[in-house]
Design goal:
- By secondary structure, the protein is an alpha/beta fold.
- The chain folds into three domains: 40 residues, no CATH class; 324 residues, Rossmann fold (3-Layer(aba) Sandwich), CATH 3.40.50.970; 53 residues, no CATH class.
- Helix content is 26%, strand content 20%.
- The strands form five sheets. It has an eight-stranded mixed sheet, sandwiched between helices.
- α1 packs across α7 and α4 packs across α5.
- The protein is globular and about 75 Å long.
- The two termini are 50 Å apart.
- The structure holds thiamine diphosphate, iron/sulfur cluster (SF4) and magnesium ion.
Length: 453
Amino acid sequence: MCYASAAKDIPAAADRADGRTKIVITSTSCGQNATMTYLAKPKFHHPGLAKNLLGYTHRDYEGKISTLCAGCGHDSITAAIIEACFELSIAPHRVAKISGIGCSSKTPDYFLGNSHGFNSVHGRMPSVLTGANLANRDLIYLGVSGDGDSASIGVGQFVHAIRRGVNMVYIVENNGVYGLTKGQFSATADRGSKSKKGVVNADSAIDMVAMALQLGASLVARSFSGDKNQLVPIIKAAIEHQGAAFIDVISPCVAFNNHAGSTKSYDYVREHNEAVNRLDFMTGRDPILVDYAPGAVQTVEQHDGTTLVLRKINADYDVHDRVAAMNFLQLHAAKGQVVTGVLYLDREAEDLHKHVVDYAPGAVQTVEQHDGTTLVLRKINADYDVHDRVAAMSFLQQHAAKGQVVTGVLYLDREAEDLHRHLNTTETPLNALSERELCPGSAVLDKINAGLR
Ligand SMILES: Cc1ncc(C[n+]2csc(CCOP(=O)(O)OP(=O)(O)O)c2C)c(N)n1
Ligand code: SF4
Ligand SMILES: [Mg+2]
C-alpha cells in the first residue's frame, strides 16, 4: 500500500501566488510517484515578538507549517525544539537536523527552517549523522527519529551511534506505532497493550532508554510531548552536552494509538507519569567576581548587559537590630542599590525543626506551628542520583513493573568523551582542509595500511 497516496488528489500547481503552498512530485518509499505538499509559513513578523541574544524571534526557529494530524504529539516536540533553540540563542545555521522516515522523521521540516537538514532513509539517520559529524564537528547534530525508525529497522544503527559516543542529540518521538504506515505496533509497544482495533500485542517491548544506558549514552532522558516544562530544559541540556545524548519522548499518535488499552495515549501517560526530577537548564558562563570594601558601592555589568549596583554594609553595622535592618534596606533600595552582607541575625531564634520529631524520607508529618495552625509536611524520597547508571537502570525496571512511566533526566555522565576523541580525528572540519591535507598521497596511505597489518 502506498501511504502517500492520500495526497494524490491535490492539483499539481506550482508555487501559489501567495507563496504558501508548494506542490512537488516525489517518489514514495514504496516506489510510486505521488503528489506531496507542504505549506510555507507567511514571512511577516510581529514587531512585538520577543528577541533572544542574537536578536532572533521564535519565527526565526520555525519551519514550514506542519501537515501532521491535529493533536499529534510530534508537533509538541517540534515546539519544544524551537523553544529550546530560541532560549539558547543558537544560530540556526549551526544546526544539522537529520532524520529517517516516519511522521516523526518529517518533523525537521517544521522547525529550524534556516538550518541544514537531511531526511535520510528509513532507520539510517544514525549513520548519516555519524558521517556528517565526522566530516564537520563544528555543527550541532540533532537526530530526529521514531520508534519504528530506531527500534525496528534502525535498531542496529541506533546501537552503534550510541556506543560510539557520537556528539549529538538523538530524539526518538515514541508513539508505540508506525504512525505513517497506519498504526502497526512498533517494537516499543508494551506487551499486553491494545491496538485501536483491540488486538493485543504479544511481543515484549524494547525500552530504548534502558538500551541507551547499557550502550553508554552519556545523557539519557525520557519525557512526554505534553510536558513542555520538562521537555524544553531536557532538550537544552542535551544540546549543550558533549557526547551522545539520548531522549525518548512519549508522543501520542492521535490517529492510531490514543485509545483505552494503549500505554502511549495522552491519558495513560498523564496518569502514569513518574517524574524523577523537575529541572531548569542554565548555560554555563564565566563567574562574575567582585572585591569591594565594607560601606562601598560597586557597579557590576551582568552577562545580559544589564548592570547591578551593590552596596556592602558598613563595618560597624549592627546585625541584631531588625528594625534598623529594614530601614537600611529601604533606604538603599530607593537609591537602586542592592545591599549585601548579613542584614539580620537573631541569636535566640527557634526553628520549625525544634517542634518536629524526626521523620523518614518519603513519610508525612503534621506539625503544629506557633500560631496554632498545622502544617502537613511530606519529606521527599532520598535524592535521585543522575550520575548512577546502574541505579538508573534498576529504577527504570522497578517503575516499569508498576506500570509507571519514569520521566526526567535519568542519567548524565559528566566525563563523557565523544567519537572524535576516541578516533583522534582532526579538529578542523573536513571542508576546511586543503586538498593536500585531505589526499596526502600514496606514501601516507601505505604507511596507514602497514600500521593495520
Ligand atoms: C526500507 C523501508 N521499509 C519500510 C518503509 C515503510 N515505513 C515508512 S515509515 C515506517 C514506520 C514509521 O514509524 P515510526 O518511525 O515509529 O514513525 P511514526 O510515523 O510513528 O512517527 C515504515 C515501516 C520504508 N519507508 N522504508
Ligand atoms: S498518523 Fe499518528 S504519528 Fe502520524 S501525524 Fe497522525 S497522529 Fe501523528
Ligand atoms: Mg512511531
